[in-house]
Structure formats: C-alpha cells, structure tokens
Amino acid sequence: MKRQISSYKGRKLCLWQKLLLSAVLAGAVTFAGLFGAVLYGSYDHIQGDPRAMVVLGCQVMPDGEPSILLRDRLDRALDYLEDHPDLTVVVSGGQGDNEPVTEARCMADYLMERGVEEDRLLLEERSHNTDQNLRYSRELLEAEGCDLSQGVVVVSNGFHLTRARMLAERAGYDSVSTLAAPSSHLPSRLHMYVREPLALVKSFFLDR
Length: 208
Prior knowledge:
Blueprint: H1 15-40, E1 52-56, H2 68-83, E2 88-92, H3 103-113, E3 121-124, H4 130-143, E4 152-157, H5 161-170, E5 176-181, H6 186-206
Parallel strand pairs: 1-2, 1-4, 2-3, 4-5
Helix pairs in contact: 1-6, 4-5, 5-6
C-alpha cells in the first residue's frame, strides 16, 4: 500500500510579526546605508587650496591633557600644517563639566608646544557640539577678516567627518575639505562607528 506524504507547510506569520520583521529589515537597510556614508567620509577629501583650518574639539582629560582621540586630531593637523605654514587655525571647543579647561585652550597649548605660532591660532571657546563648533568658528574667522572664499579644511577623526562636512556646508562655508585623523583608541573607534550613523540622522533633522 502506498503512503501519501503531505507537503510541509511552514507556520505562517501573523500580521504583527510581518510588520515587526519589515520594520527590522528596513532599519537594518537604513543603518547600513548610513554606515556606508560614514565610511565614505572617513578619508581625506581636499579640494582647492584652503586658507583656514578648523580643528574640532574632543574630550580633555582631568589633568588638562588631550584625550587620545583629540591628540589624534591635533597630530593630524600638525602634519598638514608642516606643508601649509600660512593657514589660519581655529581650535574649536568649549568647556565641559568634567574638563579643567576649554577644549580650545588645551588644543592651542598642544599645538604651540609643538611649534605652531600663537598668532596663527584663533580660540573658539563657546561651542558644545559639532554644529556650534562650525558656526562659531566661521563667525570668528570672518571677524578676523580671514578670506574663506578658497574654503576651509576641517580636521576630525574619520568617523566624524561625514557629519562635519554636512554641518559645515549648512553653516555657510563655500568649499569644505576634510582631513581624517586616525582613531588610536580601539574601543572608542568601535563605539563611534556604531554611534555616528545615528548622530548623522539627529544632526540632519535637528542641527539647523
């Protein structure tokens, strides 16, 4: 006698499960796209001949020394300044609750100790986020009569530069170049590459 084997039918998903799965997949695709944008911006993009540099601030340690990520930014700036000795440099960053000095003051001291002349440095000490960094730095450069028609080069860690470029263009800079510093502290680098796609969305909608 022949035995009939019924075809296997998988368990069907109910409506809420389908909606949840769709939302998870859409979120994953969106995050992947944002992550790709962050990676694309994480390299040097120099255009033209910028006459000003803005170094974006980062955490200052309790002893007044720059954090590892901030030191990475400053060392990258120093490398570039060796070949571009005429740039005006804005060091941009206010003072957080746990910081003994402003980020700008810490950065200026670090650069001067390594040979950058004090009269080339402008300290922007009011800002507390990337949007303010760039807007207040532009105000400071314009007040000093700096020629921004040839653009500005923005220095930060690679993971930060896609958002920094977007905000710089929104702040009114005509031509924005970016200089990518490494991220020597591995845990911070991993954390920031996860955080930054979400920060990019936040800045796109709220930093205006």
